[in-house]
């Protein structure tokens, strides 16, 4: 191959790669929805509630799952809401995340900035779950801990739970 032919070949290769990148477009994010449904007691803006049904829904992106330590995975939320019986839907106004500590087979919902746990559940299957696929439903009658920190802000005031039970967790990709 002479110099001119090699140069033409390299030029053609570069053009093909540029066209491939242009027409392939960006890689699409893969949305995932994590849902925790349970019954609990606590306060919203100093108004008590008792044995109220609630559903926490966390919208996230599987591309954002990261391993922060051996066997510990987290995914920050894009948006988290809670539908609380007697109050309707509340939007959490500070970052939240879902985590899976495979080492202790625990998965939960926590604050995004200081990582204080809000709701944790256990299941042996969490030892291999990576937060990127469909999962569940999984049922835990006695979750631990519940709201280990001061109330968390919502668009309807500070929310705090002091007990929860009968938690069902589901993860759905593409939701």
Structural notes for this entry:
With 175 residues, this protein is mainly β. It has one domain (30-173). It has 1 helix and 13 strands. The chain has one helix at 3-24, and strands spanning 31-44, 47-61, 66-69, 72-76, 79-84, 88-91, 96-101, 106-111, 117-122, 135-140, 144-146, 152-154, 157-173. Strands 1, 2, 5, 6, 10, 12 and 13 form a 7-stranded antiparallel sheet that branches. The protein has a 6-stranded antiparallel sheet with strand order 3-4-7-8-9-11, with no helix packed on it. β5 (79-84) and β6 form a beta hairpin. The longest helix has 22 residues, at 3-24. It is globular and about 40 Å long. The termini are far apart. Mean pLDDT is 87; it is low at 13-26.
Short description:
The chain is mainly beta and 175 residues long. It has one helix spanning 3-24; strands at residues 31-44, 47-61, 66-69, 72-76, 79-84, 88-91, 96-101, 106-111, 117-122, 135-140, 144-146, 152-154, 157-173.
Write the layout of secondary structure elements.
Elements: H1 3-24, E1 31-44, E2 47-61, E3 66-69, E4 72-76, E5 79-84, E6 88-91, E7 96-101, E8 106-111, E9 117-122, E10 135-140, E11 144-146, E12 152-154, E13 157-173
């Amino acid at each position: 191959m002479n110099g001119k032919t090699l140069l033409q070949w390299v030029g053609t290769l570069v053009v093909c790669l540029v066209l491939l990148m242009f027409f392939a477009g960006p890689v699409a994010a893969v949305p995932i929805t994590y849902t925790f449904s349970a019954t609990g007691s606590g306060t919203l803006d100093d108004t008590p509630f008792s044995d109220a049904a609630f559903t926490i829904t966390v919208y996230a992106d599987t591309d954002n799952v990261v391993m922060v330590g051996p066997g510990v995975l987290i995914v920050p939320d894009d948006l988290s809401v809670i539908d609380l019986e007697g109050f309707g839907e509340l939007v959490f106004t500070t970052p939240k995340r879902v985590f899976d500590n495979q080492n202790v087979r625990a998965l939960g919902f926590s604050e995004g900035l200081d990582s204080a746990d809000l709701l944790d559940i256990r299941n042996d299957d969490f030892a291999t779950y990576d937060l990127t696929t469909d999962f569940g439903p999984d049922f835990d009658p006695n979750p631990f801990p519940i709201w280990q920190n001061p109330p968390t802000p919502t668009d309807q005031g500070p929310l705090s739970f002091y007990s929860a039970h009968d938690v069902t967790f589901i993860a759905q990709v593409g939701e």
